[in-house]
Amino acid sequence: MAGHNESTASGKKSTEATNDVSTLNAESLQSNMKIIYYSRTFMSIIGGVIAGILGFTGLSGFILYFLIMAITSVGLIAKAGFQVHSYFDSWNQVILDGFLGGLLSFVLFWTFAYDIVHIF
Amino acid sequence: MGFSLGFLVGVFGVLVLSHAAYSTVQYRGLLKIMEEEFSGPPITVVAELLLGLVFSLWAALTVPGTFLSIHPHSEENMIVALPANLDFMVFNHRGKVFPVEMDLKLKH
């Protein structure tokens, strides 16, 4: 995805002087996406530990995951100063990216904390 | 030390979470002695978890760094724009036929 953006960005850059098309800086976008992934992964781990300590099983744990991801999204949008389009290409990059990867970390740490607190 | 405030807040949040886990383990031990069923963690543990969540959220939002503007016309991208455009950097041109003279010129 990042490579695709880069090629289109460099392609557009040469025509930038002639027609004033608003393009984007691929390096900054990549750095922003890395920050998003970092935040989401960390929050999924924390959310997994919280779900495990609370003793959630089944669907309620996944509802907690959705809640925490929603809170994280709101936090990230607030961090961007509510001007998402000056830092990201689209809303999906803030709201959806890193969701599935975070879910895997979440389940791992959920079971880990649940085992430590409630089983052993 | 070179730790930022957000990082220290995150460490503190993780410590709060581990203390909440420890309290829950002790609470379960107490329930086992009193021979009662576990229905949910005590309210202090829930409060600790919320506190840890807030601290960790703070850390997760501040530690990774600040967002950079992706607009090519913004001020922070003005200087980066020229070296980023590698397409116009030409090293394989006819001037390489005369490397010795170039060196002599540079020595003067």
From TrEMBL, chain A:
<feature type="transmembrane region" description="Helical">
    <location>
        <begin position="94"/>
        <end position="114"/>
    </location>
</feature>
<keyword id="KW-0812">Transmembrane</keyword>
<dbReference type="InterPro" id="IPR008504">
    <property type="entry name" value="Emc6"/>
</dbReference>
<keyword id="KW-1133">Transmembrane helix</keyword>
<dbReference type="Pfam" id="PF07019">
    <property type="entry name" value="EMC6"/>
</dbReference>
<keyword id="KW-0472">Membrane</keyword>
<dbReference type="GO" id="GO:0000045">
    <property type="term" value="P:autophagosome assembly"/>
</dbReference>
<protein>
    <recommendedName>
        <fullName>ER membrane protein complex subunit 6</fullName>
    </recommendedName>
</protein>
<comment type="similarity">
    <text>Belongs to the EMC6 family.</text>
</comment>
<feature type="transmembrane region" description="Helical">
    <location>
        <begin position="35"/>
        <end position="56"/>
    </location>
</feature>
<dbReference type="GO" id="GO:0072546">
    <property type="term" value="C:EMC complex"/>
</dbReference>
<feature type="transmembrane region" description="Helical">
    <location>
        <begin position="62"/>
        <end position="82"/>
    </location>
</feature>
<keyword id="KW-0256">Endoplasmic reticulum</keyword>
<dbReference type="GO" id="GO:0034975">
    <property type="term" value="P:protein folding in endoplasmic reticulum"/>
</dbReference>
<dbReference type="InterPro" id="IPR029008">
    <property type="entry name" value="EMC6-like"/>
</dbReference>
UniProtKB/TrEMBL annotation, chain B:
<dbReference type="GO" id="GO:0005769">
    <property type="term" value="C:early endosome"/>
</dbReference>
<dbReference type="Pfam" id="PF10270">
    <property type="entry name" value="MMgT"/>
</dbReference>
<keyword id="KW-0256">Endoplasmic reticulum</keyword>
<dbReference type="GO" id="GO:0072546">
    <property type="term" value="C:EMC complex"/>
</dbReference>
<keyword id="KW-0812">Transmembrane</keyword>
<comment type="similarity">
    <text>Belongs to the membrane magnesium transporter (TC 1.A.67) family.</text>
</comment>
<dbReference type="GO" id="GO:0022890">
    <property type="term" value="F:inorganic cation transmembrane transporter activity"/>
</dbReference>
<comment type="subunit">
    <text>Component of the ER membrane protein complex (EMC).</text>
</comment>
<keyword id="KW-1133">Transmembrane helix</keyword>
<protein>
    <recommendedName>
        <fullName>Membrane magnesium transporter</fullName>
    </recommendedName>
</protein>
<dbReference type="GO" id="GO:0005886">
    <property type="term" value="C:plasma membrane"/>
</dbReference>
<dbReference type="InterPro" id="IPR018937">
    <property type="entry name" value="MMgT"/>
</dbReference>
<keyword id="KW-0472">Membrane</keyword>
<dbReference type="GO" id="GO:0005794">
    <property type="term" value="C:Golgi apparatus"/>
</dbReference>
<feature type="transmembrane region" description="Helical">
    <location>
        <begin position="44"/>
        <end position="68"/>
    </location>
</feature>
